[in-house]
Write a structure and sequence with these properties.
The chain contains 8 helices and 6 strands, in the order βααβααβααβαββα. It has a 6-stranded mixed sheet with strand order 3-2-4-1-5-6. Helix 6 packs across helix 7.
């Protein structure tokens, strides 16, 4: 059996536009652009017969795929897919000190120091540990066509776990709002079919 897993990042929020740190502690709504991105994604993929939709507990994910959920496809919301917790930076607009600390931590993760974290938040290793049960569920589930809506940093780490890469390589996996990663699981091995595909957004500016 071949399983198809379609993983997208949520649509745009005002926090994305304003460069406000938005992790697990911020439960924001999609803005008008995010709503349009979600509609365009649905129109491009509505013919796929998804067996299940997974989202995080944060509403920006289920709002993004609500058109699929409304088709009465089973919906499983799990905290394991929540965004990383950015601790004391949650809800804070980017400023020089924040950016310096943030990028220092990102560079530490790239260098393999996965346990470093922002005060009060989660480390990359914490996130990986939280995601591993979800990866195990993908291996074991009976569902064959799976839609997953999650968050930027979570998506990066999830890709590493699925493709058996070091979590330090997470920044190899770029993402945009509603960018799609399509993977197949065959004989116990995940492979990428599409990577950060945003073809469905080609008419975004004309639609707004």
């Amino acid at each position: 059996m071949i399983k198809n897993i379609y993983i997208i990042r949520h649509g745009q929020t005002d926090f994305n536009v304003k460069q406000v740190v938005q992790g697990r502690g911020i439960n924001s709504d999609l803005n008008d652009t995010g709503i349009q991105q979600a509609k365009l994604f649905f129109e491009a993929h509505k013919e796929i017969n998804f067996d299940v939709v997974y989202t995080s507990l944060l509403k920006r994910t289920w709002q993004t795929v609500d058109a699929f959920i409304s088709k009465k496809i089973p919906h499983i919301a799990t905290k394991n897919l929540d965004e990383i917790d950015w601790g004391i930076f949650e809800g804070v607009e980017h400023h020089p000190t924040l950016q310096e600390t943030y990028y220092n931590i990102i560079n530490e993760w790239k260098n393999g120091n996965l346990s470093i974290k922002i005060e009060g938040g989660e480390s990359a290793q914490d996130l990986a540990d939280r995601l591993q049960p979800f990866v195990n569920e993908l291996f074991n589930t009976k569902y064959e066509n799976i839609l997953v809506c999650t968050h930027g940093r979570t998506l990066r780490v999830l890709m590493c776990l699925m493709l058996n890469k070091s979590v330090s390589k997470m920044d190899d996996y770029e993402h945009q709002n509603t960018g799609l990663y399509h993977l197949q699981l065959k004989d116990g091995i995940f492979s990428i079919v599409k990577e950060n595909d945003i073809e469905h957004l080609s008419n975004l500016n004309h639609e707004n």
